[in-house]
Specification:
7-stranded parallel beta sheet, Arc Repressor Mutant, subunit A, 2 domains, Rossmann fold, single chain, 258 residues, alpha/beta
Length: 258
């Protein structure tokens, strides 16, 4: 999905700050409100943002954004997270990847590794991993969700339960103030939990916009992870719960790939 640089930045601002006015965006970019309205019209027509009186915000939290739109939001932050995960995972490891745009970007960042064994229900992850001839890639069978290009449900649960891997890599729809991990469907939660229960180290990858983001299906807590990778420090209560539980927290590093 092609966006201008300004539209990309606008989407990131709204993802970070929530409701944002037309006037504040015009001032931030030193352009007219008419120019900003054209940008916002394009972003809203694609479903990335939602019109509100005087400005825009993200679409309703009752359901997740379509996959192509999630690939756009917080892309630079996700690339930083992916580089940190690539530093952490050694050559020759076995990995279970779940659904989501951040795991897909992590799979791409691992392309310089050797002899990884990848197990996934995410066709986007599988395609990224297959670009490295030394990787062994195994996918779950079943019906694909068209836009998300993934398999969820009992077949995916049974698939992940059949292996014991070194690292489970998965994202999350949102994190509540008490550390609850939230997603948008029961099947998504079940797949994530099955991976967590069948890996030696669980690696949660999420950008900062997931803290406080509403989603309605709960499954597990952030302090149950082995390592949490993020682009910014979490809220203080979350950071304390991670510290108390001995969970390693890793900040994404460096300048992302453009």
């Amino acid at each position: 999905m092609s966006l201008t640089g300004r539209q990309h930045t606008i989407a990131d601002i709204v993802a970070r700050e929530g409701f944002t006015t037309v006037d504040s965006l015009a001032a931030a970019f030193s352009v007219t409100t008419q120019t900003i309205r054209r940008d916002l019209r394009s972003l809203c027509d694609r479903g990335i943002l939602r019109r509100r009186h005087g400005g825009v915000d993200l679409p309703s939290g009752n359901e997740n954004l379509p996959y192509p739109m999630r690939q756009i939001l917080a892309l630079r932050e996700k690339q930083r997270i992916a580089r940190a995960v690539a530093d952490y995972v050694p050559d020759g490891a076995s990995l279970a990847f779940s659904i989501g745009t951040t795991p897909e970007i992590v799979a791409t960042a691992l392309s310089g590794h050797k002899n990884l064994r990848v197990f996934t229900n995410n066709i986007n992850v599988a395609a990224a991993a297959c670009r490295n001839a030394s990787f062994e890639v195994t996918t779950a069978g079943g019906r694909l969700r068209n836009q998300d290009m993934d398999v969820i449900g009992p077949s995916a649960d049974a698939f992940f339960a059949s292996y014991k891997v070194d690292f489970g890599i998965f994202g999350v729809g949102g994190v509540d103030a008490d550390g609850s991990l939230l997603d948008f469907t029961e099947d998504e939660v079940k797949v994530r939990e099955t991976i967590r229960q069948n890996c030696r180290q669980s690696l949660l990858v999420l950008d900062h916009t997931k803290f406080g983001r509403p989603a309605h299906v709960r499954g597990g807590y952030i302090h149950e992870m082995s390592v949490v990778f993020c682009d910014q420090d979490p809220p203080e209560t979350i950071r304390k719960s991670l510290s108390d539980a001995g969970v390693k927290f890793v900040l994404g590093r460096g300048r992302p790939e453009e």
